[in-house]
Amino acid sequence: METLLKDLKYGLRGLLKRKGFALIAVLTLALGIGANTAIFTLVIAVMLKSLPVQKPEELVLFTDVTGEGTSFEDSPRVGKWDRFSFASYEYFRNHNQSFQDLAALRSGTSRLSVRRPDAAAAARAQGQLVTGNYFSVLGVRAARGRVLTNDDDKSGAQPAAVISHRYWEQELNSDASVVGKNFIINGTNFTIVGVTPKEFFGERVRRPPDFWLPLAFQPQVELRDSFLTNDQVYFLMVIGRLKPGTSLEQAQATTNLALRQFLTEQAGSKLTAERQDGIQKTYAKLVEGQGGISGLRRAYSKPLRMLMAIVGMILLIACANVGSLLLSRAASRKAEISLRMALGATRWRIIRQLLTESMLLALIGGVCGVLLAQWAVTVLVGLVASGSPLNTRPDTGVLLFTAGVSIIAGLLFGLVPAIQASRTNLAATMKEKNRLRSGFMRLSPSSLMVVMQVGLSMVLLTGGGLFARSLMKLQDEDLGFDRNNVLLVGIDPRLANYKPTELPALYQQIIERVSTLPQVRNVSVATYAPLSGTRRSSSIKVTGYTPQSGEDLVTQDILTGPKYAETLGIPLLRGREIDQRDTPSARLVAVVNETFANRYFKDQNPIGRTFSFDEDDGQPKWIEIIGVVGDIKGEDAREKPEPTVYRPILQVQDEGAYACTIHIRTLSDPTPLTPQVRQMINQINDKIPVFGITTLNDQLHENLSQERLIAQLVSFFGALALILACIGLYGVMAQGVARRTNEIGIRMALGARGGNIAWMVLRETLYLVLAGLVLGVPAALAGAKLISAQLFGLKPTDPLTLVGAAIVLTVVAMLAGYLPARRASRVNPLSALRYE
């Protein structure tokens, strides 16, 4: 230990004497270690962190499929269940064998209109409907007041609500007297009974809901018929806590047995052989619940693993860079090391001293890397999941990872220079001082490190180029509609107590009023907007079409207002589009897209043909096709168009017509119209909540946020790798010029011109770059194949990207080599001859 302390003190003094060398080495290592620590911290936060509840390892989810919404079915589902009816949840709970208890929650959040006691106007909020035992199953206690209980989740109970700590802080200014106050939520008076702990955000890794409300009040909260008494509404997710000693496999078996028993009892006397066979194929897939339900985990698991590999390459380049610096420094310390060995120091003692100095550099770089990583993680979380409750504070695991990376880095860049430096002796060193040095391209460790850096940089530049070009193709992809100059305004008439029969008049009034605004060309409405992430699919029957065995006749079902296709710029191919004549008193009509027409009618004219929906009770309601419009990509630029039906929203007077987005096409940028549109809707009815105002272009931009982030990160790391590689190349060439100063002086004394000397150095630089490309191009092609599934519109062997990356790398590397070449060309022969 005493010797180690002496080595550390000596190494620290050496670094302080060479501040420039130490600064460059520490900064290089901080970039490499910091990048690894930042991505690893994000991996831990997104993929491995447990829910902040008691004993999260005991929790089990009945599905990990993310998504919002409600599922309606005409008959019990066959196959995998991801959502559950209230009756099935009650059956699981009453016939429970493997769980301490089971809780259920609404699959999606509910929009709330909240009027506080001290506020004149209502405010928007998000609510989560849960069973009364939700908090007890999760093992969560209130920070203030109490949580919901089973007594709150009964018919006739006093309406109670729990608010999130975030809502309490930001919206209620941490009001200490909030418990016991009454809030009017969607017209019902709820008493606030508690506030959740600050770290609790629910079962999903996202921004917590503002309110948790008892499931028994679903009709009052959602202002619609009760789902609790309808066996054909699948709207719940189920979460349970295992009994001690019970495995996930045992719980899986007992749950599926209970599910099949429930379906058998539900069928009763209608249990046919076909129905029995369907029941045996029905199951629920239980998953571990300690990490909760995370859309981030599903969306970013592959990109994060890819980024871990990329930052690993960055660390290798950084280590090679510092290794080159240490080799150069070791060359200048040969006399010192030879003298030490002549005085009795063993080779192992020299290696240990040099490794101690390397580890000291690595540890300082690691500390700086942790600080850099914290800033980087904050930026990354803001880009990936702004508002998400991700816990990115460095814990023991992150710090151990950083320490391990620092130690490995110290060994990687320190071992070769230490061994190289220990292979010298005093006599050889003294002879070398008088020997003419020549030739850059000896196979030295420094040259090999530069070649490796160039090769890895080629891999990362190619990856960045592929993702960037893929993003450009996605942005330029023809979506089937004109996304420019379209304003989208969301409204929810349900929260303003509109009845379904009153909706057509409301929508017609909105269209007429907004159409009078200046710069407005067209106005229409629809149940949801393109690229919004929302969709509704329904099963249909088509007159004259006989489905094949096992074929599902499923179509996207969109309710739209008059001139919807004209407003979005969707081409009308046949017939007419929906207009003002399609009212509740008119015959039922619809417009279909080209994919629908080609699938069900092929070369026949679809105009005048009819179809109906499977969920129609009793006699089917046949809908006549009056027009065909072009296909659009309504969810994702990558997708293939699906069969789609557009029905007149003015003709529908049921629950399906509630969700609505106003589409406004303008002559120029529509953003300035936002206040006028909001004011006009408030004039119609100030109780109608207005939300989600954006443009169609911005919605596309948001839709491509993940692809954009990946392209930016990979390109950034590629540029960082290129800079580090060029720094390493510059260091090797500059050291080579310094070693050959006397040779260059002799050449110039014998008549060599500055241009000849510069080209000699640049030629050696080009050799190193070409050697790196020989290794880097095959590695880049192999890496591109691994990411081919994430690309759009181009192959992993895209020649333009490969050639472009190679040209950029070569040009920048030659610029890095130009500075030493320029210095060599300006050597004074007389000074060079007196160099030593």
Give a verbal description of the structure:
The chain is of the alpha+beta class and 836 residues long. It is 48% helix and 15% strand. It has 24 helices and 26 strands. The strands form six sheets. It has a six-stranded mixed β-barrel with strand order 5-6-11-8-10-9. It has a six-stranded mixed beta barrel with strand order 18-19-24-21-23-22. A hairpin with a 7-residue loop joins β5 (110-115) and β6 (123-130). α9 packs parallel to α12 and α10 (334-342) packs antiparallel against α13. The chain is globular. It starts with a helix and ends with a helix.
Features:
single chain, 836 residues, 6-stranded mixed barrel, alpha+beta, globular, 24 helices
Outline the fold blueprint:
Elements: H1 2-17, H2 19-48, E1 59-61, E2 71-72, E3 80-81, H3 86-94, E4 99-106, E5 110-115, E6 123-130, H4 134-138, E7 144-145, E8 160-163, H5 165-170, E9 182-185, E10 188-195, E11 211-214, H6 218-222, E12 233-234, E13 236-242, H7 248-267, H8 273-280, E14 283-284, E15 287-288, H9 295-332, H10 334-342, H11 347-384, H12 396-421, H13 426-433, H14 445-476, E16 486-491, H15 503-515, E17 520-526, E18 537-542, E19 554-560, H16 564-568, E20 572-575, E21 589-593, H17 594-601, E22 610-613, E23 623-629, E24 644-648, E25 660-666, H18 674-684, E26 690-695, H19 696-703, H20 705-739, H21 741-749, H22 754-786, H23 799-825, H24 829-833
Q: How far apart are the first and last residues' alpha carbons, in Å?
A: 41 Å
Count of helical stretches: 24
Largest sheet: 6 strands, mixed, barrel
Estimated helix fraction: 40-55%
- Sheet-strand content, in percent, reads 15-25%
